[in-house]
Each structure stands twice: as C-alpha cells, then as structure tokens.
Design a protein that fits this description.
The protein contains 19 helices and 26 strands. It is α/β, with parallel strands linked by helices and 606 residues long.
Length: 606
C-alpha cells in the first residue's frame, strides 16, 4: 500500500491497547485499515503488555513510517508519556483535557515529527517487585519508549490522545455500526476498565457521543460472570465461553441462588457484592498463566456452591442470571435514550446467548454487536474516537473483519520448502474443490488464506473446517486439536442462499455474534454444529464476503448436498489463532490437523 491509499481525506490514527488482549489498529475517518492482536505475533494467548511487535507489524504491512502517523491513540485515561506535551485525554463522558489544548492550538499534522522529545526512562525492575508485573517487566509500557522513538512516533508533531477504556468501547460500537445520521443507543459492558464496568450513551445524528449513565467497577456484571468462570476451574478472561457452553447442560426451572445479586436499575447495574480483585498467578500458583492477569477474589466464595450442585447447574444459574440482567438493562437503556437502534461493545457482549435474547425479546430496530467486543477491540475504538476529537469526520463502517496480516504465495512456498516431512500439492484454482473432497472423507483441515481476521473468532481464513453431518469428526477435533471439554460447541459456516433451511428469521450473521435456534432439518442434517440446547452460532458467507470460503462450501454442497461446514478457530487449545505460515505448519507437523489448505497448496504429511 502507499501512504496516499491509507490516509484518506483526513488524519491517520494508530490505536494501541496495552493491557490484556493487547492490540493495534490503524484507521482513517473512512475505514479501519489494519488491526491485529499482539498474541498472534508473540504466541502468548491474551498477551498482556505494550504491543510493540504489533505496532511494527502494522507500519510494515501498510508501508508506513512513524512520520506518516498523525495521532497515536491509547486506550487509557491516564497519560503514559506525560513528557510528550502534545497530548490530550478523553474521559468516559467525552470531556477533553491536556496540554495540547493550550500549547498546540495551531497544531498541524506532520509538523516537527522528525525531532523526538526526550522521554522518561523505563521503570527499573525492582519497582515491579511484589506487583502483578513482576516477571513481566519488559512488557510494561514504560519499556516501549525507546522503540516508539526509533519508529518516529514520539515527534512533537505527533499528537497522543488517551481515550478512557469505556469511551473506546463505545466509540468502536457507535462509529462502526453503520447507522450514520441516526440516533443510537450505545451500551458497553465488561469486567472493569478505568474504574468503570459499563456505560450507556447516545450516539447523535451529527457524530457526537453523549454519556448518559455509567456503572463503577465494583458493581460489575462482567466480574460476576468472571468469578463464576474461575470457580468452575476455567481461566478468567479466557474461559467464559466454556461457562456459556457448560450452562446448556443445566436444568431449567429451579430457584436461582444468584437472583438479585446483580440488577439492572435506571440503565446501570447494581451489585449486592462489591467485587474486589487480586493477582491470578499469586492466587493460583499451580495454574499460572504467562500474563500479569487479575482475577475476582469472590471466585473463592462461589466454589462453595459446588459442594451442593454440579458444575453444569452452577454454570446454568450464572448464565441465566447474566441473560436476565442484560435483557432488562438493554430494555431500560433503549427507553432512556429514546431509540430502538442499539450498538454494543465490551467483553460481556461476546455472550451470544444473551445477545440473542436481547434480539428476540426486545426486538431492536437495528442491533450491532462490535465483533471485536472484548478488550482487543479497544485499539480500534480509541483510534476512531481520537480522529473525531482531532477534527476528522468519522463515517466508517465494518464491511470486513479480514484486517490483519497476509502472506504472498511465494512466502508460503518458502516456509513449506523448509520441511522435508510435507507432501505439497500445488492445487491453485482447484484448491477449493480439492479441499471439499477431502472434507467429505472426514479430514480435519486447517485454512490459511488471505488476511488474518480481527477479533477472537476465526471466520474462514484462519479456521479449522470439517464435515458437520455427524458428531464423529467433531469429537475427533476435540481429541487431536482442541484438547478441550467435550461440551464446548462448534460453529457452522453456512452458504447464504441455503441458510433459511437451518433456522428461521434473519440470515445476516457474518461475524458469529448471535445464536439461532436450529431447525429440525439442521438437527438431522448437520448435528456436528448444533449445541446440546438446540442452538447454533452461525457465520453466513456469500461470494462477496469470502470468495475462497464460498467456493469451498459450494464444492462441498456439490458433493454432499449440504452447504455447511464445521468452523473452529485454527489453534491448539491454549495457543492463539495461527498468525504465520510457520504456525500453521507447526499444527500439521504435530498432528493437530490432517491437512492444510494454505496459499495455493493442499499440504499433508508424507
């Protein structure tokens, strides 16, 4: 790409999220140009730290240098580099402060970018002793200053905009929802960030984002669900999808012990418990994770429920309480904001069952769930909000989530040539049908095509795909690849022109953000993608949204009469989704998949 291609008609912003699920996004006022999570590069799942490698990757991929970046937007309200005087801080309510208001009234993007200011020193390792950062010091933001300077991102003409955590969540939802010129109810929900766990706002027709309500971290609905997840033995900020999957095995109609623990009131959540937090690694020395992760201290209290009920029932009660609270909160929020257009973000909004109940019981006129709703999406929201604050009209949308890295056929072939154990067949344009034929035989195939998906869910370019017509292949995927609990469901990829066979209602589900009720036809025809509660989380594709994946599905339908495939993320359990050809080859060499459809090639082991 050339600089002129990415700048658009306004400024260019580099968004950075530096805590867990660290990420980087590059945006102009018209679109997101690039987005990647640091974990895809470092191979540390939910990478917690300043995303230095993602910054380098983004600039390299887009053909930019630091001097091409007008704004660096960071998803926190506290200035990380206060010595850099050209900075602004955007609070959750949208108020803007900082020395740049006074010192740089006549700021012109590009001015004096070549001369970096003198920055502070990295914090010494001894200052981290006894904190959650001990052992992770080199990932701390203060250690990134030298690299930022070398990249040309600390010049006086580069404006730094610090965007409060929930403001960034809200901006991502509102500014990408595609409802330009309409009044929008904007709702955020997560565990905690910059002292808050949720916000309610109005996205106005002119692009203003008004804060109406906010919920402090101590009243968090997300922390409740996180605490139950940890009590069930799963890793918090990772295993919540397992809690949701396990909940399907519980019994309905029983008195819920969580009733009233969290309640929706006047567009906010209230909690009977004031959540407190601790270091996960210190509290769980036998289950340490490679991140300075925090956990909810009350998870210890929730383990006592397991003395009198099965884990499945505890998960059911937690999921039921979460859903009930979210439905009521959404109902109140739309009433308060006076609009039936809803846009949401925050980690809690990854709960597809709750999203679906809001859809079905409240029936918003328009309902947009930011696909990268968790904290990895904060870099995107921060960049968009910073552009707005600095005067660029933001009229963006999200037509595609394929916004990460890609590799040329030559780069793929170079990696394959390094391994003597690989049998490489250059299938070229015949690769989709070649893949479909092997899927029909029961093969589990990893795909590595085009650009990497943004967000936590694989959408065909870095997926593992398989035949959904029996449960046999699904069980095999769990055995060889996922190494995870049997109750975690697999999602379907479905051809748009036959999606109506598998559920009723809308088929506009491109990003796996909602669940649907499987039809009887689906239960009989594709049981491998129907969860035990009769639901599915579909990705619907057509020739425009993903031509290669559409061709594979069409080939499979030609062979079997079924335009559906199992889709799960291309990663061994505990690892991030594959980010490079080498990562994909590693999975094949270890026997975690049967074959690769990578670049122009179909690859197996000799």
């Amino acid at each position: 790409m050339h600089v002129g291609d990415v700048k658009g008609n306004g400024l260019l912003a580099l968004g950075i999220h530096w805590a867990h699920d660290a990420s980087v996004s590059v945006c102009n006022g018209e679109e997101c140009l690039f987005s990647i999570a640091e974990e895809r590069i470092t191979r540390i799942k939910h990478h917690y730290g300043f995303p230095v490698q993602s910054i380098q990757c983004a600039l390299r991929f887009l053909g930019l240098t630091g001097s091409d970046i007008d704004i660096v937007a960071i998803s926190t309200r506290k200035p990380l580099f206060p010595q850099h005087k050209n900075h602004l801080c955007v609070e959750a309510d949208g108020s803007v402060s900082g020395p740049a208001l006074k010192l740089f009234k006549d700021w012109r993007p590009g001015a004096s970018k070549a001369g970096p200011q003198r920055m502070g020193e990295a914090k010494p390792k001894k200052s981290f002793v006894g904190t959650s950062w001990e052992g992770f010091e080199d990932r701390h933001w203060s250690w990134a200053q030298q690299t930022l300077g070398q990249l040309g991102l600390l010049g006086e003409g580069t404006r730094y905009v610090y965007v409060s955590h929930h403001r960034a969540h809200a901006a991502g939802a509102f500014r990408l929802c595609g409802m330009h010129g309409r009044r929008v109810c904007v709702m955020t929900l997560d565990g905690k960030g910059d002292g808050l766990s949720g916000t309610l706002g109005i996205g106005h027709e002119d692009g203003r984002l008004e804060l109406v309500r906010s919920t402090p971290a101590e009243e968090s609905l997300g922390s409740f669900y996180q605490a139950v997840t940890e009590a069930l033995g799963f890793i918090p900020v990772d295993g919540e999808y397992k809690t949701m999957g396990l909940a399907a095995l519980g019994k309905a109609g029983l008195a819920n012990p969580f009733d009233g623990m969290i309640s929706a009131y006047d567009g906010m959540t209230r909690s009977r418990t004031r959540w407190s937090f601790r270091s996960f690694n210190e509290a769980n020395p036998s289950r340490r994770v490679p991140n300075p992760l925090s956990s909810v201290a009350q998870s210890v209290d929730f383990t006592k429920y397991l003395e009198r009920m099965e884990p499945t029932q505890l998960a059911y009660f937690a999921q039921e309480h979460l859903e009930d609270t979210m439905v009521e909160l959404a109902r109140q929020s739309m009433d308060i904001t006076g609009t039936r257009n809803l846009a949401v973000a925050g980690g809690v909004m990854l709960n597809v069952k709750a999203n679906s109940r809001i859809r079905d019981e409240i029936s918003p006129q328009s309902y947009f769930v930011l696909p990268d709703s968790a904290d990895s999406g904060l870099s995107l929201g921060a960049a968009l909000e910073a552009l707005h604050v600095c005067g660029t009209p933001v009229r963006a949308s999200l037509p595609s989530l394929y916004l990460g890295t890609s590799y040329t056929d030559a780069e793929v072939m170079e990696e394959l040539a390094r391994h003597d154990r690989l049998a490489v067949e250059e299938a070229g344009p015949w690769l989709p049908m070649r893949t479909a034929k092997e899927l029909r035989k029961g093969k589990v195939i990893g795909t590595f095509q085009g650009r990497l998906e943004m967000g936590p869910r694989a959408l065909g370019n870095r997926s593992v795909i398989a035949d959904p017509r029996t449960n046999t292949v699904k069980d095999r995927i769990n055995a060889i690849l996922k190494g995870r609990e049997w109750f975690v469901p697999f999602a379907p990829i479905v051809l748009e022109d036959e999606a109506h066979k598998y559920w009723s209602g809308s088929v506009d589900y491109r990003h796996m953000t909602f669940a649907v009720e499987a039809s009887e036809y689906a239960k009989q025809t594709v049981p491998g993608v129907v969860h035990v509660d009769g639901t599915m989380r579909p990705q619907v594709v057509n020739e425009t949204t993903n031509p290669w994946l559409h061709a594979v599905l069409s080939g499979f339908r030609q062979l079997t009469g079924v335009g559906v495939l199992i889709n799960t993320s291309f990663n061994r359990h505990g690892l991030p989704i594959v980010g490079s050809p080498a990562d994909a080859v590693e999975h094949l060499l270890n026997g975690w998949v049967d074959a690769l459809a990578i670049g122009p090639c179909y690859v197996t082991l000799k």
